[in-house]
Every structure is written in C-alpha cells, then in structure tokens.
Amino acid sequence: MTKKSQREKNFLILIVLVVGLVLTIKLVQLSGLRAAYNSMHQQSTQQLNNLINYIENTLGRFEKFPEVLSTHPLLQEVLAHPNDLIKRDKLNLLLEEVSGVTQASDIYLINENGLTLSASNWRKKNSFVGSNLKVRPYFLQAMTGVSSHYYAVGLSSDKRGYYFAHPVTYQEQVIGVVVVKISIAAIENQHEQLINGDLYNFLIVAPDNVIFISDRKEWRLKKINFLREKTDSTPLDLKRYASRDIQQLDLTKISSPFFPPTLDASLYQINDSSTQEIIFAQQARMADANWQVHIWSSLKPINSEDSFLTIVSIGGYLLLVILVLFIKERMKNSQQLYQARLLLEQRVKERTEDLTAINHKLLAEIEQREHTQRQLENIQEELIQSAKLAVIGNMSASINHEINQPLTALKSYSQNALTYQERGMTNKVTGNLKHIIGLIDRLASIVSQFKNFTKKSTGIHIPVYVQKSINETLAIIKHQAQNERVQIFFKVPEQVFYIMGDGIRLEQVFVNILSNAIQAMKDIDKKQIYIQIKPIDSNVQILFRDNGPGILDTNIDKIFEPFFTTKESFGLGIGLSISQRIIESMQGQLIATNHCEGGAIFTISLPLHPFK
Ligand code: ADP
Q1: Which one, of 208, 213, 237, lies nearest residue 223 by Cα?
Q2: Do 212 and 205 form a contact (C-beta atoms < 8 A)?
Q3: How remote is the CA of residue 559 from the centroid of ligand 1, in Å?
Q4: What is the tens place of the pLDDT at every residue in 366-397?
Q5: Which atom of ligand 1 is nearest to the CA of 570?
Q6: Can you tell me the distance from the alpha carbon of 360 to that of 354, in angstroms, rounded to the nearest whole number?
Q7: How remote is the CA of residue 600 from the centroid of ligand 1, in Å?
Q8: Strands 600-607 and 539-546: what pairing?
C-alpha cells in the first residue's frame, strides 16, 4: 500500500471514529435525557398536585365562612342602624376576634351603598372602616344575592388578597355584604416551605394571564404571553391591580430533540432582563377559581445528567474502540501465528521427507556395509584358514619325517612278524604285534593334533586356560622343533591363568610365533626359545623370546602388515597380521621387540578372566 492511500485510509478511519463518537453521544443522550425528563415530569406532577391540594384546602377553609357569618344578628343590626356606634364597635370587636381566630387577613361589613361600616382592622391606620368599595366586583356580585369570590390588590392595603363575599339579607332583601379577605402572601410564604425553591418554582396565573401568586417575587403581578391556549384571555381589570403597572414576563418556547414529545409539559426560556434561564413548565387548571397552577422546574438536574451522560458515552465509546482494536490485534496475531504454524508444519514436512530419504539411503548403505562386512569376515576366515594351512605346509617336512619314522618301523615290525610266523615263533609274533599297535597309536595321536589345529574355529569366546593352550601348541610344534634341533624352555607357572577367547585361534597365534622363531633361527647353531607367562595388573603377559637374528629396525613396524614377508620362497606374509587381529579381537595386544642381547621377543597381553 502506498503512503498516500495509507494516509487516506487513516483519515477515513478517523472520520468514522468521530462520527461514531458523535452518534454514540447523541444516542446515549437521547435515551438518558428522555428518561431524565420523564423522571422530572413525575416529580413535577407530584409538586403540582401538592400545590393544588394546598391552595384548594386553604381557600376551601374560608369559602363558606362569609355565609355563616352573614347570619349573625349583629351584622343585620349594624346594617339597620349604621349610626349606632356602640353596635358598630361591638361588631368591630367581634370581627377582630374572628379574624384572629381564623387567620383571615380582614373581615368587614359593607352596606348596600358600598360603605364599609365595620372591619376587623378597625384599629389600624389604614382601616377599611369608612371606605367605599361599591366598585369592587365581589361587592356588586354579592349584592345580586349570591356568594362571590375575587382576587385583587387591596385598594387601601395595596396587598394581594383573595376575597370571599356573601350577601346579608333581611326579610329576603340584600341589605349589605360581608367580606372575608385572605392574604395571598401568607399562602406563598407557607408554600415556600413545602417546595424546594432551588429546583422548583410555582406560580398561579389568573384568567387575564397575570401571575397572581408565585414564590418568585420578581414574577408576581406580571403578565405572561403564552400560558393560555385561548387568545381571548380576560381583559385586564385594572381596578383589580389597584394602581399597579402590569408588565410582561417574556417567555419563548424552545424545542429539544431529547424532550419526550408525548409529555404534557414544555421547555421555555425566560427572557428577563436579569436572567435567561430555561425551565421545564408543567401546568394544571384549578376549575373553581379558573386559575392555572404552574410548576417550573430548573434544568439543573437535566444539565448535570447531560454532562454525566456525555462523559459516560465518551468513556464507553473509547472503551469500545479500544476493545475493538484489541480484538482486531488479537485476531491479526492469531492469524499470523496460524500462518507461521502452517509454514512451520510445511517446513517440518519437507525436512521429514528429506530426512526419510536420507534415512533410506543410510539404511541401504548400512545394509551394503553389513554385506561387505560379512564378505570381509568370510574372507578373513578363509585367510585364517590359509594361514593355518601355510603353517602346516611349513611344518610338513617335519610332520612327514615324524610319520615316516613309525611307518618304517611298522614295515620292519610287520616283516619280522611274518618271518616269526613262518618259523612258528608265535611268542615273538605277539611281541611284534604289540609294537605295531603302539606305533599305530602314536600315528593316530600325531594326526589328531593336526586335525584339531586345522579345524575351523567356532568364533565363540569362552574361558581359555593359557598354560594348557601353550602345552597343546608345543605338542603340535615339537616335531618341527626336534627336526630343527630347537630347544624350547617353558616353565609352567604355579598360578593358573585364564583369558576370554577362542582356544583354537589362540593356539594358531602361538604356533605362528613359534614357527616364525624356528624359521628365523635356521642359521643359528644353538637354537633356543623361552616361553614365559606372568601377570601384569589385570592382564596376563605371554612372552616368546628366541635367540635368532631379531627383526630389522626398518621392518619392525611393517611385520604386522598383511603380505609383508622376508621369506623369499615360502612366505605368505599374513601370519603376524592375522595373529595381531586375533589377539585384538580378544581385547588384547601383540607387539614385537628385539632383545638387547639379540633375538626377537613377541609379547601378548590379554585381560585376565577370573575363572576358577
Ligand atoms: P611369513 O612368516 O609368511 O613371512 P609372517 O607375517 O608370519 O609371514 O612374518 C612376517 C615377517 O616377520 C617375516 O617374514 C619375518 O621377516 C619377520 N619375523 C617374524 N618372526 C620373526 C622372528 N622370530 N625373528 C625375526 N624375524 C621374524
């Protein structure tokens, strides 16, 4: 991949990641914020219901009160005799006392002309007594004979109040009106303690869209522009608000994608000179009073939820990206591992095939070598046999002499036996026949020695008694030695020596060494051979020393080589080489040296065998 296309790929991945992040944040916000709005709606509904209950209870407590009060005879008496100051004072005191007990703001009696005759606040500076209230709607309505209620800013008190009025009748004629006024401020103050002002604000809006009650002072007696669906809101009754200047509280409805569309609430921005807050507005109608009751919730919890959700979604998204990268890396690694394993398996397979081929080749070579080895062994066997026959050949003259002697004796004994037979000298015939039998035994013993020697060896190693082997060798060689007038000295040691080997081959070695020694001394007058056996460490040493000319220094390393011979006419040159191999096959050693006084020494060392 080129650098450019790699850069483009990286850029694309970055864009996908950013889009993914934005989508994740939006999705989390959508579900999280909708849940938060729903929860806010629930709590706000609860607050709204509490507020409505509270106001209805508060107003309900005073609703029937003017009616009950209107039946008091003192009221009729004062209305009938307005100039009776004693009665009026009495009524003043009564109204003052009732007002104190009921916690009504003011209670007062108005005559049919609208003049206030008595009032609970008669003692106060701005007492209603003497004021004319004939313009007040509640008075006018009560004068028609029905109960009325009304909210307004007090003309003399300049305080917001709620008025309950009831006609006072005499003989079914309306002669005046009794009014109970309650303070709106008291409702606000009490309710402020019930509601968490940090999170919720409440307001009560009159049909003319004026906020009549609110826990927020700055909103009170302000007209708002949105709250009623109907545009034909009741026109402003300016008397109701005394001399107040009714200003506008500007609200703008705002929309949010996270706001649940099914919720019966809205988001508004308050465009006040001092603040620009956004509120969650929920409203309900109070049927009797025809008021809209509102709970405006602060968006603080939503905003902090929003921040929390943003952080959580970013964190979650990053974790997800890291997880995806990690899994991708793991998959890449395991793919690489898998490829490497396949490659390795392939190489192992190839190597195994190579090795198998080499192995087959080696096996074939081993078989070939074994075959050659077997052939060599056969040849060696043949050689050994040839070497024996060569020795026998060398000894044939003396054997011949040895056999001829008894044969000549046999002939003369037989002829003599015949002569004695003819002469009837049977005693002598018997004597001669005994001699003949003795000679035949001797011949048989000579032949059997050579027969044994020429037998093919078994090649099996068994314990061999060394002294016995030498004695048997001497029996074979003695005819040749006698023939050549060689003296052989062998002092049999007391200690018994055994070695592990092949007895016939060991004798062959001895015969070979002794036969060579006899031949080497052929020009010497006094021919002598010494045989000695002695133990050295764990070996037995067998020495053959002759007093011949010894071995030439130039030849001493060559005499064990195959086919080396100094014997011109009859030497094969294999005797010593075969002898050395025979001794080595028995874990021994055969060496040749010259004696300082002349003559050759052949030394055989063989490991002792502890055979008893
Ligand atoms: P061959 O007897 O047929 O020559 P050998 O291997 O038996 O073969 O002997 C090799 C040579 O070692 C002989 O030709 C001879 O020169 C030398 N040799 C062997 N024994 C003696 C000895 N006792 N004294 C001197 N030379 C010897």
Answers
A1: 208
A2: yes
A3: 6
A4: 999 999 999 888 887 787 777 777 777 666 66
A5: 3
A6: 10
A7: 10
A8: antiparallel
Check if the beta carbon of residue 107 is closer than 8 Å to that of residue 94: no
Taking the centre of ligand 1 as the mean of its atom positions, its distance from the CA of residue 567, in whole angstroms, is 8
279 lies in some domain: yes
SS3 199: coil
* 99 and 125 belong to one structural domain: yes
Query: Is residue 502 over pLDDT 50?
Result: yes
| Alpha carbon of 553 to ligand 1 centroid (Å) | 13
Query: What is the best residue among 391, 480, 486, 516 to mutate for testing ligand 1's pocket, by most ligand atoms within 8 Å of CB?
Result: 516
Question: Do 224 and 251 meet the contact criterion of CB atoms below 8 Å apart?
Answer: yes
Q: Which of 394, 560, 568 lies closest to 481 in space, CA to CA?
A: 394
pLDDT attached to residue 236 = 62
Indicate whether 278 belongs to any domain: yes
Cβ atoms of 177 and 63 within 8 Å: the answer is: no
Question: What's the rounded mean pLDDT across residues 299-313?
Answer: 82
Domain assignment present for residue 449? The answer is no
Position 546: which residue type? D
Query: Any idea which residue has 């003011």 for tokens?
Result: 106
The domain boundary residue, chosen from 276, 301, 326 = 301
CA distance 48 to 128: 35
482, 517, 560 from 527: Cα distances, Å: 11, 9, 24
- Is 228's pLDDT higher than 70? no
DSSP symbols for 525-556: SSEEEEEEEEEETTEEEEEEEE-S----TTTT
Structural domains in the chain (count)? 3
**pLDDT value for 232:** 46
Q: What are phi and psi of 574, to 5 degrees?
A: -115, -10
Is the domain of 219 the same as that of 179? no
Mutate to test the pocket of ligand 1, among 576, 577, 595 (most ligand atoms within 8 A of CB): 576
Question: Which residue, 283, 301, 319, sits at the end of a domain?
Answer: 301
The C-alpha atoms of residue 197 and residue 215 are separated, in whole angstroms, by 8
Q: b/e per residue, 430-464, with b = 16+ CB within 10 A?
A: eebeebbeebeebeeebeebbeebeeebeeebeeb
Tell me how far the alpha carbon of residue 565 lies from the centroid of ligand 1, in angstroms: 6
Q: Which of 565, 578, 594, 604 to mutate to test the pocket of ligand 1 (most atoms within 8 A of CB)?
A: 565
Residues with CB under 6 A from ligand 1: 512, 516-517, 520, 546, 548, 550-551, 559, 564-567, 571-577, 600
d(CA 392, CA 450): 8
**Does 180 lie in the same domain as 234?**
no
Which residue, judged by its Cα, is nearest atom 8 of ligand 1?
Answer: 573
Q: What is the CATH number of the domain that holds 219?
A: 3.30.450.20
**142 and 254 share one domain:** no
| pLDDT band at 530; cut points 50, 70, 90 | very high
Q: Coil, helix or strand for 238?
A: helix
Q: Residue 504: how many CB atoms within 10 A of its CB? A: 20
Mutate to test the pocket of ligand 1, among 559, 578, 604 (most ligand atoms within 8 A of CB): 559
- Tell me if 111 sits within 8 A of 117, measured CB to CB: yes
Of ligand 1's listed atoms, the one at least distance from the Cα of 571 is: 3
Residue 499 burial (10 A CB sphere; 0-12, 13-18, 19+): buried
Domain span at 590: 460-607
> What does the pLDDT read at residue 231?
43
Residue 352 belongs to some domain of the structure = no
